[in-house]
Amino acid sequence: MSRIKRIAVVGGGIGGLAASLELSKSPDVFVTLYEKESQSGGLCSSYRWKDVVCDRFYHVALSSDTETLRLGRDLGLGNRLFWKGSSSGFYGSGKLVSMSSAFDFLRFPFLNPVDKLRLGLGILTAVRIRDPQSLSGLTAPVWLTQVFGRRLYERIWEPLLRSKLGEGRFRTSASFMWATINRLYGARDRSRRRETMGGFGRGVWMLAEAAEKELRRRGMEIKTDTAVTGLRWSMDDSNTSAALLEENPFLEGGGDKETVIPSPPRFFLRTDETEEEFDRVLLTVPDAAIEKILPPGYFHPFRTRLKETEYLGIVCVLLVLRRPLTPYYVINLLDADLPFTGVIETTNIYSPEDFGGRSLVYLPRYV
What is the 3-state secondary structure (H, E, C) of 139-177? Predict the structure, then answer.
């Protein structure tokens, strides 16, 4: 009988939950999941206001989100998955207009006929790119200007990038915009020629809740309200091989890979209350958090990459309203002086009846 391997997963967001589920399929693995907040889910966690339970941040599923949909079905939420046609709007120069159909596109007031033709051809060009590596080295503004032209970039893409990414737009990879365009294009219902969006019941938080329940059913351990503050490891230096070092970025040293049998390291995870030993540790938290967990004197080229990753924060106001605000799921904002970066009314996808007849409107600002 093989020894049970103890694996720690740090970070209870959707990535950490999905990884824990995958690892726990093995009968030889015991997973301990660490989450610093009082509930798992991360950006996919829930928020409660009186009798309303909803997503803390706005989320919908698209037909192109194959892995998310598969995870939901694996967790028994297939019968809660629904799809609904969605509508989008644009606000600029004091005007709120629809952008939800081919007819809306033809009468869209912010672009002339040549711009509209260029926009359609540019989107088709973007979705036909199969290898995003071909965009390596290009920033989003440069690539969008190449594909759509300077005028269209300044009128449409520049305001959207500015509201979403701020000054970070000049450092954002073109592959980010390529992936975004492909995801949204894949959401279109070809028969109805409109976007189709969906969700799991009352929100994506139900996906995180189902994942946590399944982990507990399998006998795994989930520690919420538990922040990981440090990680160290030890190993038998005489048995360290170059092969092991190549496979594991957390190890340093040298050896003859042909004659030395590697000895697996032991990992020690520290929290405010205790220190536990594990066979492996998987870190699914942001790079800056990983940097704080690693030992101060430890150097590896991978650590340099952790410091180079730039993150954006988000402030997201949730309005719980007695009646709908607009008929649109999302309103894209073209004016630079507005204090938020979009208006997202999720109850134009989800049913207001699931929230006591109320409408949910999210006002995000990326900072």
Answer: EHHHHHHHHHCHHHHHHHHHHHHHHHHHHHHHHCEHHHH
Q: How confident is the model at residue 262 (pLDDT cuts 50, 70, 90)?
A: low
160-171: per-residue pLDDT in tens?
Answer: 888 888 788 899
Q: What is the spatial distance between Cα 3 and Cα 29, in angstroms, rounded to a whole number?
A: 9
Euclidean distance between CA atoms 33 and 212, whole angstroms: 10
d(CA 215, CA 89): 40
Asked if residue 202 lies in contact with residue 60, where contact means CB atoms within 8 angstroms, the answer is no
Instruction: Give long-range contacts, CB 8 A cutoff, 24+ apart: 259-262.
Output: none
The CA-based angle 38-40-45, given to 5 degrees, is 100
Cα dihedral across residues 257, 260, 264, 267: positive or negative = negative
Q: How confident is the model at residue 69 (pLDDT cuts 50, 70, 90)?
A: very high
Tokens representing 302 are: 């991978």
C-alpha span between 323 and 127 (Å, rounded): 38
Other CB atoms within 10 Å distance of the CB of residue 48: 9
- Do residues 288 and 311 touch, judged by C-beta distance below 8 A? yes
Task: Tell me the residue type at 41.
Answer: G
Q: How far lies 317's CA from each of 58, 91, 161, 251, in Å?
A: 10, 19, 20, 44
d(CA 272, CA 296): 17
Confidence of residue 16 (pLDDT cuts 50, 70, 90): very high
SS3 344: strand
